[in-house]
Amino acid sequence: MNENIEFLQAFLKNPGTVGSITPSSPELAQRMLNGIEPGPDDVVVELGVGTGAITKYLQQIVPDESSYLGIELDGGLVRSLRKNFPDMKIVRGNAMDARAIHKRTGFGKVSYVICCLPFVSLPNEVGEKILLEVDKFMQQGCTFRTFQYAHGYYFPSAIKLREFMRNRYGKSKRSPLIVKNVPPAYTLTWSTL
Ligand SMILES: C[S@@+](CC[C@H](N)C(=O)[O-])C[C@H]1O[C@@H](n2cnc3c(N)ncnc32)[C@H](O)[C@@H]1O
User: Fold this and answer.
1) Which of these CATH numbers, 3.30.40.10, 3.60.10.10, 3.40.50.150, 3.90.1150.10, describes 3-191?
2) From the CB of 18, is ligand 1 less than 6 Å away?
3) Ligand 1 center to residue 116 CA distance, Å?
4) Strand pairing partners for 45?
5) What is the DSSP letter of 1?
6) How many of the other CB atoms lie within 10 Å of CB of 106?
7) Is the confidence at residue 58, as pLDDT, over 90?
């Protein structure tokens, strides 16, 4: 099935958790991976894989099959992701359990978290739990990158995420506005590596 149609279907089924009507554009995907250079001892965790708009670029840069772990909530999306990315480890699960899911894989240290979750439309308590999971990876030395849509940048939950990270890890590195994405977005990065 066409990626855009599949994504739209997932959005219509669960608008709050999918959070957008289209997958990330190649411009946003490449910006999300700018400077991400995993070595053989690094694991990249992708939260909210969707239809794999970012995964297809990650596939080109991860050293091997135990260097990538994708976590996606939607069972239908996970089924087609596994067909499209047979060499990538994609788990159907909740980002709220990211640390336990990672432990179960037996993979090495998480050096990068690429987060595509729509915090703006997730329930507050879910967003808070996910940030606490991210924090566990950050405490071990990790780079966390996410994107926020321009129109939602000052929504309370978007501000809350930035405050949570800023209070622990300082000011983010923010990209220029990526206008070639629907909707336009910024990427935000914090690092303890
Ligand atoms: C905005 S889409 C991004 C998809 C893709 N990475 C992209 O950039 O096009 C968000 C994805 O996060 C997934 N998601 C939402 N809440 C989640 C959670 N708690 N745990 C894991 N995945 C979740 C949704 O099902 C959806 O596929």
Assistant:
1) 3.40.50.150
2) yes
3) 6
4) 69, 113
5) -
6) 7
7) yes
